[in-house]
User: What shape does this take?
Amino acid sequence: DAGVTQSPTHLIKTRGQHVTLRCSPISGHKSVSWYQQVLGQGPQFIFQYYEKEERGRGNFPDRFSARQFPNYSSELNVNALLLGDSALYLCASSLVHLQDYGYTFGSGTRLTVV
Amino acid sequence: SQKIEQNSEALNIQEGKTATLTCNYTNYSPAYLQWYRQDPGRGPVFLLLIRENEKEKRKERLKVTFDTTLKQSLFHITASQPADSATYLCALAPSPGGATNKLIFGTGTLLAVQP
Assistant: This one.
């Protein structure tokens, strides 16, 4: 079985631009979470979606938005990019929306804002 | 304020020894705590989960303890190998009761096992 798939793997954008990151969860997993990991830090929670509904939102500005599609894949959108948005963006999928089990993470999208 | 702290400095140990990593938290009442391994440029990989009513959990060479009085979890790797070299992250789930389903991660501890 394929694991969690994220695309693209690397991305370079200019300040002020918009970016869309994509995630395909493990087949059968209905929950998708997004995390931001700045170099040297642990992942920080951005969003969680379960059954296409937002179930949690972290302390991020409104420039960050996400959605989940009927096939449970997900997109993370970031508008008006800032230099500080440069990070590894991780997608995690799980069977249920409660964190009673470990998450399966993708390899992430490395976003560099210049 | 709420904090999760892991050993900020890298942990260097000799192959065959037991590595012990620490995770301390303040101002949380976690329902469970998880440990992940992360290799450079990769996403975290789930290792173990321990619930608030469990004192200890084992999986092969791994052992996790959870002391809710001390607000601390210890992660042990016995008979360590160079292949165990990685960053280890602890993550806790805030006490259920709200709508949040997020994990709060520590900053991670870099483990280097020398042959």
